[in-house]
Structures are given as structure tokens and as C-alpha cells.
Amino acid sequence: TQLLEQSxxxxxIQEGENLTVYCNSSSVFSSLQWxxxxxGEGPVLLVTVVTGGxxxxxxxxxxxxxxxxxxxxxxxxxxxPGDTGLYLCAGAEEFRGNQFYFGTGTSLTVIP
Amino acid sequence: NAGVTQTPKxxxxxxxxxxxxxxxxxxxxxxxxxxxxxxxxxxRLIYYSASEGTTDKGEVPNGYNVSRLxxxxxxxxxxxxxxxxxxxxxxxxxxxxxxxxxxxxGPGTRLTVL
Lengths: 112, 114
Hints:
The complex is a heterodimer.
Chain A: E1 5-7, E2 10-14, E3 19-24, E4 29-37, E5 44-49, E6 55-58, E7 61-65, E8 71-76, E9 85-93, E10 100-102, E11 106-111
Parallel strand pairs in A: 2-11
Antiparallel strand pairs in A: 1-3, 3-8, 4-5, 4-9, 6-7, 7-8, 9-10, 9-11
Chain B: E1 4-7, E2 10-13, E3 19-25, E4 31-37, E5 43-49, E6 56-57, E7 64-68, E8 74-78, E9 87-96, E10 101-105, E11 109-113
Parallel strand pairs in B: 2-11
Antiparallel strand pairs in B: 1-3, 3-8, 4-5, 4-9, 5-6, 7-8, 9-10, 9-11
């Protein structure tokens, strides 16, 4: 059983469309990260959210941490082919030391 | 600055063989991690080391052992490889605290066990 569930698992959209990826859990996290992974490479950090209700923007990407710190979302505006990749959320569970849990991943393909 | 390096990049083993995956970081980070990545499963934590001299089990430690040789190096050993251990293995190191954190990942080791 995955501690963090992501949806959708696969997403294929046309360039210029908007999309939202969800990361959900029944556990409370002290922080939550979003990573992007290219084929054949390791994940690279996009953002960390720490405070419940926090919203962070990174150009066309908007990240939100749920009020209860159990869920998060990633919204991409006007997707571009360069956004193609595997998006992973990861969380540090409260009171569980330095252990991090990763979501199941969302594979995004943006078609030109 | 090489970041996190892993060797080898590819490996094919027969069932029952042993091998050690090497990982090193040059960023002076205290915490290091070993993950495996399987299709549809994201990354799952095998073992981690919060500091030199300490190691702890993660979600899927069975069949693996680790050694934190010094602050830079964290190795993962498969004593008797099984086909279920076919996966991509990533090593990572952690910058910052558990709250304001960023994991830096190596390029991965693609392991096939026949």
C-alpha cells in the first residue's frame, strides 16, 4: 500500500492545455516535495511546501499544500512539450524521522 | 562538483549472485538514501543513513544490506540476488533539515536479475 497516491497515473495533452496532478494521503506530512524525472535520470526537485494551505508558483507551475497537510496538487498552465516527464510527490511524515515517502508518479506527455 | 555519483550504471546478474552498488556525494550532506524504482510504484525507500555511522531500514529492506563507509559514501549490497530485485536503484543525499529539504539524486543503476 502506497502512503502517497497520485492521480492521474498517465496524462497526455495538447500543447497549450492546462492540467492538474493530485497527491493524496491519509497521513500528515511535515513537508511535501514535488520532483520531475526525465527518462534515464534521477528526479530533480521542483518545490517544497511546508505550511498547510501554502501556495507556491514556479513560472507556469502552481503548487498547493492542503490545509491539513495530507494532500497537494500541481497545476500547470499552458503546458509545453518541455513539461513532458514523470512528476513525483514526496513527503516527510510527521514524527517519522528522516524517512521520505514517494507517490506513485504521474507520467505527463505534452503533444506539440 | 560531481553531486551524487553511482556505479555501475547497468548490471546483469544471475539469481543467487551478489553485488555491491556504490554511491558517493561531494556536497558534505549528512543524510543519504537508497531507493528502488519500479513501474507504477514511484520510488520506495530501501535504507537510509541519517549520519555517518548510522543506518535505518526503509519500506523495503529485505534482501539488502547497506554500509555508510564515511560521510561521502553509502553502499548497497545484494547478498543473493533474486529476479524480484530487478529494478532501477537510486542513491540520494539530503540538503537541509527534514522540513526545508531537498534530495539530490544520482543517475541510477539499472539492475536485471535473470
